[in-house]
Amino acid sequence: MISSSEYGSHSWELLVTVDHQHEEVQKEFLLRVTGDLHIGGVMLKLVEQIKIAQDWSDYALWWEQKKCWLLKTHWTLDKCGVQADAKLFFTTQHKMLRLRLPNMKTVRLKVSFSSMVFKAVSDICKILNIRRSEELSLLRPSEDTLKKKKKKDKNNKEPVTEDILNLCNSPVSSGLSGSPGLYSKTMTPIYDPVSGTPASSTITWFSDSPLTEQNCSILAFSHPNCSPETLAEMYQPRTLADKAKLNAGWLDSSRSLMEQGILEDDQLLLRFKYYTFFDLNPKYDAVRINQIYEQARWAILLEEIDCTEEEMLIFAALQYHVSKLSLSSEAQDFISESEVDEVEAALSNLEVTLEGGNTNNILEDITDIPKLADNLRLVRPRKLSLKAIKPYWFVFKDTSISYFKNKECAQGEPIEKLNLKGRCEVVPDVNVAAKKFGIKLLIPVADGMNEVYLRCDNENQYARWMAACVLASKGKTMADSSYHPEVHKILSFLKMKNWTMSPQAVSDPENTDMKPECFVSLRYTKKYKSKQLVARILEAHQNVSQMPLVEAKLRFIQAWQSLPEFGLSYYIVRFKGSKKDDVLGVSYNRLIRIDIATGDPITTWRFSNMKQWNVNWEIRQVAIEFDQNVSIAFTCLSADCKIIHEYIGGYIFLSTRSKDQNETLDEDLFHKLTGGQE
């Protein structure tokens, strides 16, 4: 019974369920409130009524029906729209979450379920000592992966116990400011740049971190490869549609975990979402480099990205080398002190290459634009006959290729001029063993793509022309400071491919303790016998056998970045006005429309030519406007259109980063570019 004075007032009863561990205390409480009572007042009333002496600072109100947190404690119930029928939960904001890292290890840690995912990932990366958290995000495992796992568990008679690294005692993961793990804001070198081991004093500086030396090595080192049986049981995408499913589960960075239906102790994947690895530095990034290496390794082993047989053997040789050094106790003493400076220089070159630019030689950008002129062979595919191969005199100037009948005709009009600026796709067509050095150019024309092949005579010629084509496709000329590092990168990759059989190196493959099935995809284990694979991997290993551990990982990442499909995330879409489905490839600098049946690119649109993009949330359609009155619109069939919208905005946000930002991010700008106005 309530008094008549209370009955006459505007008060009403609000049911709140409290999430606590005390079994003897009730969990549901009825509070008498008024609409002008603020959220902080509701929580105060509730705590007074619970009568349990504990720290309630991490608790907040969760509105079940609306799937939202009531975090603005100064807002009134009326302003929030809370009425008597609301079901509120008083629960902790930080909860346990299991995260599967790129190296397939699972860590268990406390994460904020009330912060936006972008902020939650930033906190996770601080615990794990991964810089540049904006490149990562959280992904729900695809249904096909889960189905395969359930089938595997069903076939296993013994229950599988997962090895989980527990980091739940972390001060950061408890919601406190605490220690930054090994994350160094002062930029004091915290890793040996050669071996990737924590610098001797690092662990003692941050002794209160959950990243003990042992835990740190689990994250920063590549551990023994999984068995061939395990690899065979893992989900492998077969088609572009399968690859599209892998990218459907990205969480919305602008909403919290609870708002997206994630529950306590759920498992999510922590992955590099954006393939622009900024400022990779072995002195600070041992964990980050290892996790990128592992994500690349699994993408190749599970055939999420295509590569040639020659490339697969290089990847296998580098994996074998990394696993050997990681297991060896002498990994950190791999080279003598006198050689450290040379390795530092080599790694800084690699770092520049991986960043895609060099800050030195700025004068190159403002001097005369260089040009290339050479005898090359032109190959044009013919539908009803063999390919026509003819030699011509080629001139590469600015971002265009012109070709003439011979060198003497170069002063006149060219037979044809191919404009590559910011529009074409450049694909390597190389077989070093067969001395084939080709460049495949896919140039957009009104009715699709114009396919042109250029054939070079040798590695040096190929590297110069390939680098020029790659830069032109990004809208840059050979005067750009990244041209020479690009040539160097291509030559070093060709050098790794160019191995010769050495009797000393592969004297007796049978005595090698290598399991080759762990280093190549299933396609090659079915194609070759184990002995053949061992011999071929050891052959390729000769060119990388002297590399220190971290450099080998960086070389692997670099080779992965050289693959034509690198950095493409696929989605099945329906373009406006089209009657059939297409695949849309989203990359760091462009969108590609791909034929779903053949896998051939149809059209490319560069972000540099984009004027604006928006989403019609009612019909879930993404509309993009480019220069020269080009506009496209599509609906996404394999995922929510918000995911593609966030990808585009995210890549544009990442392109604004610079080294002088001191690692602080404009979080508001990220949400402005990616959040959308739903």
Automatic annotation (TrEMBL):
Residues 370-476 form the PH domain. The keyword Iron does not apply. Keywords: Cell adhesion. GO terms for biological process: cell-matrix adhesion; integrin-mediated signaling pathway. GO terms for molecular function: integrin binding. One of its GO terms (cellular component) is focal adhesion. Residues 91-571 form the Band 4.1 domain. Belongs to the kindlin family. This is FERM1 protein. It comes from Eolophus roseicapilla.
